[in-house]
Amino acid sequence: MTRPQLGLRQNAAQFTLLVAVNALVGGMVGQQQTTLPLLAEQVFHLTGYTFVFAYVAAFGIAKAASNYVAGVLSDRHGRRPVLLAGWLFGLPVPLLIMWAPAWEWIIVANILLGINQGLAWSTTVTMKIDLVGPRQRGLAMGLNEAAGYLAVALTSAAAGWIAAQHGLRPAPFLLGVAYTVIALVVVTLFVRETRGFVALESTVGSPAGQLSDRRIFADVSWRDPALSSASLAGMANNLNFGLSWGVFPLLFAAAGLGLREIGLLVALYPLVWGVGQLATGWLSDLVGRKPLVTLGMFLQAGALALIAAADTMPGWALGTAVLGVGSALVYPALLAVIGDVAAPEWRGRAVGIYRVWRDLGYTAGALLGGLVADATSLTSAVWVAAGLSAAAGTVVLVRLGETHPEKRPV
């Protein structure tokens, strides 16, 4: 039997399968980005942005909690069973949305979607880190996140086009049905366990390999400057994504744009984000993590200010594209920071806890968007998010040290 080896090339077949699986995970979010805010207004006749955006908040809380569970279970029982469980939770999601008689059903569907995303996306991240080892960690994370967010973008645009042709329900959500069936078949038949690769990189017997769950949580949340700075930046990034999910379609619709135009604008942000990560993950291996994270957060602040100030489609398109560039710089670099600092023995838990804080940003963005929009306007909510992104960038600039093994100061 061939001894397993670390490296992207050495594990190309399994790595490619996991990239494809993560694309399907992202597509589950994309199927509803364009359509759900419009369903709330046009089908369920809801008023009050805070209530409308409750589905994003529910998604964020469920995903955050599931990230932690995924990390603990994957370290203790293996990665593959957690990945399979994530897809079982995703199976009812499109069906619930297609046939929901009340908005509460949509919220339940998004709780299940959050569990699907937390278990499945977190586990594909950990599995890829297991396979490639430290030298190509940024590249691996870039490919992983690019696949997920390109799928978000393409599915978002496709769902908008389908909705324009066939209505808001049920046709756009047939995409989600197809994604779950394909993923369950691929994971069941072809994906292999990767926890055995941890031993190749392990530091068994070192203090880093013997941390308690409580210590790991404290390090990732506030104690370790690098890990906690990554958690804050991740939360700010996903606050912007959560806000865009709820606010952007309604902001653009209020200006008179149609479903196709809204679908294109909503898709542009994750499209640029996804494509950009094909380069930025590799770039973080080349120049280090901190420059990309710092620049990315300040770019996001500027992009949100542009979106808030614009009132035409070209201005919004430029703003959403720059927002995507900022997220592309940040996302794989932050995951690489976690992989750089966390020891192999507690890597799954560290990834899970980081993603708890990062994905609570969805909830923060939804609540911020709803409360500020109800109190003032949708545009004001975007301005507030711009200020928070700039504040997070400042913290990263001051507190995050370089973590790349070959770029750390001597």
UniProtKB/TrEMBL annotation:
| Domain of life according to the entry | Bacteria
Cross-referenced Gene3D superfamilies: MFS general substrate transporter like domains
**UniProt KW DNA damage keyword:** no
User: Any transmembrane segments, and where?
Assistant: 12-29, 49-70, 82-99, 105-125, 146-164, 170-191, 239-256, 262-280, 292-310, 316-338, 359-375, 381-400
| Any single Gene Ontology cellular-component annotation | plasma membrane
Which residue range or ranges hold the Major facilitator superfamily (MFS) profile domain?
A: 11-404
What is this protein's record name?
Answer: Major facilitator transporter
| Species of the source | Corynebacterium humireducens NBRC 106098 = DSM 45392
User: Pfam families from the entry?
Assistant: MFS_1
Q: Provide this UniProt record's keywords sorted from A to Z.
A: Cell membrane, Membrane, Transmembrane, Transmembrane helix, Transport
State where the protein is found: Cell membrane
Give yes or no: UniProt keyword Cell membrane.
Answer: yes
A GO term, aspect molecular function = transmembrane transporter activity
Q: How does it sit in the membrane?
A: Multi-pass membrane protein
Primary site of residence: membrane
